[in-house]
């Protein structure tokens, strides 16, 4: 705790060695009025949850898995802004603590040399017109060796240590740095709105300004990635000039 240097984020910290999913724990706590900035962290998760109902491999004890409860006074449709904000914070937090330079892949995969080293899952508890809590789950692959990933992920996943010639990091340092940067951007967001966050996201994202293919269950859209909207929607300009809005998809 002494190393956190944050004002609110993580000042209430619930740490568990092993848990089914920190996301689930945070949902329970959010329902019980735990304050803005509460963090639930674990060394191992047995049922880590990823985006789009995918499992998130996190039982090895070589990463850090945590979920943050935020209570911004916003309408539910703006919650995706916090996903992009978290991606900016994780990217900068990793850079500040490790010297490595990850890039963002829309909406919020954090990649080093094209492989995923962190993932973010944002969920919320909400009334029809007001957010009660946004739960931001962050998974950081920190000291994994390649065999800590299942074979089918070994070409797509990586860890900070693997991209650092195998030299391990202190997991608490990386986590503290991510929380510090999350607090910085969250305060900026609450006072100045989404503009600065969006500009920074676009600088750190490889997805924008190039040719992409967005694959979802419904369809595949190919074209030039123009940018993101205030709602976190990806805009793709197709060959015929029409602009398609992508809400949820995987990007090739
Ligand atoms: C993704 O890229 O699919 C998102 C992965 C999010 C994983 C984190 S780990 C902490 C929190 N608890 C979970 O069960 N999931 C998130």
Automatic annotation (TrEMBL):
GO terms for molecular function: biotin--[biotin carboxyl-carrier protein] ligase activity. Keywords: ATP-binding, Biotin, DNA-binding, Ligase, Nucleotide-binding, Repressor, Transcription, Transcription regulation. Its EC number is 6.3.4.15. It catalyses: biotin + L-lysyl-[protein] + ATP = N(6)-biotinyl-L-lysyl-[protein] + AMP + diphosphate + H(+). Biotin binds at residues 45, 116. Acts both as a biotin--[acetyl-CoA-carboxylase] ligase and a repressor. Belongs to the biotin--protein ligase family. This is Bifunctional ligase/repressor BirA. It comes from Salibacterium lacus. The gene is birA. The chain holds residues 70 to 321 of 321 of the full protein.
